Amino acid sequence: MPSVTHDDAPPLADLMPWSVAPPRVGRTWPTAPDPASLRARWDALLTAEGADREALFEPSRARTLTSAVGRLPGRSGGTERLARAAGPCAEPVRVLAAPFDEQWLIPDHRLIDAARPELWRVADAQQVFTAETGDPGLPLLATPFLPVLRTGRVRPLHRRPGGREPNLAPGLTDLLAARLGGPPPPAADVLAWILAVVRPDLTVPLTEDAGLWAAGVDLGRRMLRLMLRDGERPKLPGGRRPYVRAPLPGLPSPRPRPGGGIAPLTPHYDRDEETLHLGEGRISPVPPEAWDHEVAGVRVLEVWCAARTAPAEPGTLAAIRPAAWPQTWTSQLLELITVLALLAEVRAQRAELRVTSQITAAGLREAGVLPAPEPARRPASVLDHREEGPEGQLALL
């Protein structure tokens, strides 16, 4: 990780001033590694009546079957109270459920304790979210999907849909252009720099050295490509690419069923053979740095596998899940191993990066960039589409 010094580096909270607490679902069943299970869970909820529906729903202080809430911005789904809901399941969307674990969520406001609608209003194909991890080696994650991590703040790169209005302190890119020479850097490059140099205390050293800036941005871009995976599928060099040596347990297209699911599969790693064992399945080579990759003290591959095979309480909606291991999970696991191995190389380079010729927080204050104006710390007004309130009423924003 970049060295920590007392050099008056500006805090991330000042450079990207608008942040939101992560959405809090409040119950496990509206999230799953596959969308088919979510649709089956929704059908099971609506099939039940009275006390049975209430028990399946798992009410909380924030949400019950009689809660009156509006529709999530830009999403489908009903707005009538769940006690008498009869409509189809809202189309599941991808979310970041844990570090490097992309799952699916039913985007229905009635199911989510704290949905943070301001984040949904700016979630689109041009958006990039950063999420604090609390991990000193990787303090920030970047994702194209809404993070529902139980960690720190979420910062969108853009304050409006369509990639408009960067969530950066006003005047920051103009100051960087003046100090580095050249045009103002795009918001994506500023984010790349932040990912490359951000420290465990979430301060971000800035540099006036154009060569160092270019090197840091290049490093951050590689991190972004691995985290966002929005381009060509990442690959390890020939001979180091992981392959399935023995089939993972499962059928190509299992149907979700209640009370079933895959038998618990505890992954085992053979360090000498560089082999990952999952039940009778076997994947190799799996580089040690991929298996050892942790975020906030938790091994990523173990958590990823547990999310798909850990037992659920019988009779709950969470127990409606694939009866066997889907082929799509195998492809996702191979890609995750590759991403973690490549990211380990980037993290090592990140640890060697030393920022010199710094632009300090005091310098940003002198230039009028800091403190960011109060409106920059609040969500922008997004009024270009209608939002439906409870019971079909028009929501007033």
Offer a few descriptive terms:
about 15% strand; about 400 residues; four-stranded mixed β-sheet; alpha+beta; 17 strands; 2 domains; disordered N terminus
Q: Helix and strand succession?
A: HEHHEEHEEEEEEHHEHEEEEHEEHHEH
Which geometry do the CA atoms define? Answer: flat
Major beta-sheet overview: 4 strands, mixed
Determine the structural class based on helices, strands and strand pairing: alpha+beta
Please give the count of helices: 11
Number of distinct beta strands = 17
Q: Helicity, in percent?
A: 25-40%
**Oligomeric grouping of the chains:** single chain
Strand arrangement in the largest pleated sheet: 1-3-2-6
| Mean of all residue-level pLDDT scores | 91
Percent strand equals 5-15%
Stretches where pLDDT is under 50 for at least 5 consecutive residues are 1-5, 251-255
Determine Rg (CA atoms, Å): 23 Å
Distance between the termini: 42 Å
Counted up, domains total 2
